[in-house]
Amino acid sequence: MRYTYYPGCTLYTTARSLNDCALKVAERIGFELAEMPAWTCCGAIYNTNSDDLAASVGPVRNLARASQLGDKLVTLCAACYNVLKRTNTALNDPEKQDVAKRLLDYVEEPFERPIEVIHYLEVLRDDIGWDQIRGKVTRPLSGLKVASYYGCLMVRPPKVLQFDDPTNPMCLDDLMAAIGAEPVQFDFKTKCCGGYLVVSQHDVAVKCSRRIIDNAADYNADVLVTTCPLCHYNLDALQRDMKAEDPDFQPIPVLYFTQLLGLATGLRKRELALDYNKIDPRPVLKKVGNVS
Amino acid sequence: MEYPDKTLIRQIETLSGQGISDCYQCGRCTSGCPVVDEMDLNPRQTILLLQLGKAEEVLGSNGIWLCASCMVCGTRCPCEVDYARIAEACRAIVLRAKNSKVDPDSIKDENIEEIPQQAFVASFRKFAG
Q: A Gene Ontology molecular-function term (chain B) (predicted)?
């Protein structure tokens, strides 16, 4: 299977490890992600002001270009997924056709065919299936307790995204079970990490992220996994501030789900890009016998 | 009912696509808000003040600048009122009068190196005029 793939800006820089592992794992599992040419930034956040059409030009242009290549567009960053899927839904909303027409006229790139925006996790769950993934596991992550953190952008607004149960999503948990890890159920799997507030109100983001880490720790998680580069940054890098504020704070490694998927399916240690994680996950992975 | 700040309220309703009077003040938005502890006006109070026509008070509050658009409020609302959209509209009114809340020049070099771009793009979209 071959899919058109939209990586987005952050996956080319700070979240390189999310992107690189995902591409290599796809090869192992048996599908191909073909990066679409000439993609641009999705805008990072979905605009909701009714008169601000300029904010939608980027995502509309990306969707139009992707539609020339196939009927599905695969995303991996939670923010790109959210923005592109919501923009795509709005373009097809019968009540918003006047706005849709203005946007499409402006970008001057035709929609070749209707297109569906899906997340990499939906490829794994809906097209490949957990059984087939289980069959590709060469190093099951037995004994590793994983708290799957979905955040906001994968599940809300639920009516548009329809990714999973909005209050208790299970897709990542099921994937973790398929690769032999032990999914940990915790309360804050969809609680906000503070997102972009980290730029302007850093302390608020630290507080929001601390709550999630503490909650995962209450349920004895060894690691957290996420699919959003910004959640990853807040939950991982801000532990430095949590430790500075509270010497008793116990750090927990935060990984991209693709890193654990790569580990379980036999990627080489170097390919997992564990060096980029601020809280080193190797000691805990070593403890459960997964990394030498 | 005659609103004292009628023009502003209408503008907020038009920008956000939300009916201010649809809210019956149950407070579910506020119970789920992750940053409510930091807000001078919480989501429920914000909408109440708008219902009372006090738009200026809302535009001057810190609550609208703390919303991280996590969308829990709108997801939980039994009346389909989306506070995050109302906050976005309020911010737009302030920002369009050239009152930026973030200054790109004030961001430290080490943060520019480290923080993912998506956070900068989102932050400037939300908080810069």
A: oxidoreductase activity
pLDDT in tens, B3-35: 456 899 999 999 999 999 999 999 999 999 999
Nearest-CA distance B3 → chain A (Å): 22
Nearest Cα residue in chain A from B93: A49
Q: Do residues B91 and B64 lie in contact, with contact meaning Cβ atoms separated by under 8 Å?
A: yes
Q: Cα separation of B63 and A117, whole Å?
A: 33
Whether the upstream peptide bond of residue B43 has omega within 30° of 0, thus cis, is no
pTM over 0.90: yes
Listed residues A120, A149, A166: the one ending a domain: A120
Q: Would you state the structure tokens that stand for residue A217, as one six-digit string? A: 């720790």
Residues of chain B neighbouring A43 (CB-CB closer than 8 A): 121, 125
CB contact under 8 A, A230 and B118: yes
Structural domain of B34:
6-97
Domain that holds residue A227: 138-287
| B118 and B72 within one domain | no
Predicted-complex ipTM score: 0.94
A contacts of B125 (beta carbons < 8 Å): 43-45, 47, 55
With contact defined as beta carbons under 8 Å apart, do A169 and A161 qualify?
no
